[in-house]
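Reading a protein record of the kind used here takes only a little practice. The record below shows the convention in full:
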Amino acid sequence: MVPKMLWRELSLPALLLDGNAFDENCRMIAEKANGKTIRIATKSIRSIPVLRRIFKANPLFKGLMCYSPHEAIFLAEQGFDDILLGYPCWDEQALAEIAKLNANGKQITCMVDSTQHIDHLNKINQTTNGVFYLCIDIDMSTSFGRLHFGVRRSPLKSKIDVIQLARKIKESPSLTLVGVMGYEAQIAGVGDKVPSQKMKNRVVTILKRKSIHKIRERRRTIVQALEEEGHQLVFVNGGGTGSLDTTSADESVTELTAGSGFYSPLLFDYYRDFRYQPALFFSLPVVRKPAPNIYTCLGGGYIASGPHGEDKVPKPVYPPGGKLLPFEGAGEVQTPVYFKDEKLEIGDPIVFRAAKAGEICERFNEIICFENQEIVERYPTYRGEGRCFL
């Protein structure tokens, strides 16, 4: 937690990084990789200096997975290489620039999962005369009767689906298939220790265990089929922070992906099998006292994406015992917090944790890093660099 002596040095609201906790998370994540390399998910970090800090922490951290073609170009301009676009994109201008960068020695890999993507890239290359490196996204969701367990990502669900797309890629001289990705979101991104959801937690735990075998078999079969067709894959990417243990044990996977675990936001409190150190916080100033035991802060409405619910709102964590009001929650420009016993004054700080990781960085220009009772760095976010990608 942020030492009290630092508050006089801060202009609130502020985004804060506990450097010691962050470094410990880097160590723990690398330890779970079983020697495999880990690609960093930039959407969960959204700060160039923080990305560099991760790479310095352990040689197993290699490569980036970004979310926007313009972001990929920006990262390449910052000196990063081995950049994987984790999602398909359609922006002709950005894709043309990526093709040119690749022709000049960069390694930016685009994600595809349909023939339309292939046709679009071929059309772009008619005018750019560049190079596209491609990764095929495989659906890793599982079905139990009518229940779809996972997320709606790729339409490619079988070996035949993937082979047909790979053959179309092979027909295009300017397109090169270099990788396969299968993100098991139902393992990596779903908590199974959510408060007040005991029955649902049990069901999710059972479904996760049953999914792991199906996921490994599907991925192994597809990778083997691609190799038999003569495709030389540079990487097979899988997993996320929430599935490092199980994905790293899959022999067909060559690299893992991690992102949110470095900051360890609130949603990571709801996993049964692991726990990282809370590292990213934001602090708001008390600006009014509308009633006894209620202290209203400036800002705070930083609601996480996904299905709306209590698990997507930020949580006051310091001073301890704070609670949001049920009929107001976290507001756009003001957030009232109730304390039963704590006595605060106007100007005092209240510290919160966000539900998810990188999204909170879109609200601040910098991340203030503190270690051992003092501020040591100020890291600009994408927003602080004047960039907004999504």
The chain is about 30% helix and 25% strand.
